[in-house]
Specification:
Length: 163
């Protein structure tokens, strides 16, 4: 199963750890492909002109930048660094019921481990990838970074016919 397939399957799962691992694997796979694509742009017939050298240096810089992104895909906290704690598993059905009960009011849904996870979860809610949020567009959701925490907020906005 490819990293992309694993990521898609995880959208339908409530397993945060499985989803984050799949998202990290997918990101690493995409970045590795980007590095290979950039490397294929090196001039094979380098004439040694300043233009060719500048072009190849640009390719080298692009490869280095993508490599830095790849290296930071799964950062390890430095010794002594305390990372904010993420909330436990999310019960999407209970979250949707709570949001419906207080329609229009922004509510904190979950503290997550990273910005990427927060943005993905917000999209998950907006697109109704869990049954409780159906139909798509009934909920608004957003990622916020506040007080050192990655947090997702959402609100029930009603179904299209109710607005």
């Amino acid at each position: 199963m490819s990293a992309r397939d694993e990521l898609r399957d995880c959208f339908l799962s409530d397993s945060r750890d499985r989803f984050e691992a799949a998202a990290d694997a997918f990101r690493a796979e995409v970045l590795a492909e980007a590095i290979e694509a950039a490397r294929s742009e090196y001039l094979e017939d380098n004439t040694g002109t300043p233009e060719d050298e500048a072009y190849n240096q640009g390719v080298t810089d692009a490869v280095a930048a993508i490599g830095a992104l790849l290296a930071s895909s799964s950062p390890s906290p430095a010794a002594g660094d305390k990372q904010p704690e993420a909330d436990g598993p999310l019960d999407h059905t209970a979250v949707a019921a709570s949001l419906r009960a207080k329609a229009g009011t922004w509510q904190r849904v979950k503290v997550v481990a990273s910005q990427n996870t927060g943005r993905v979860l917000a999209g998950h809610i907006r697109r109704a990838l869990s049954v409780g949020y159906m139909p798509a567009g009934s909920f608004d959701a957003e990622y916020r970074h506040e007080a050192g925490q990655h947090t997702v907020y959402a609100r029930y906005v009603g179904e299209a016919g109710e607005r």
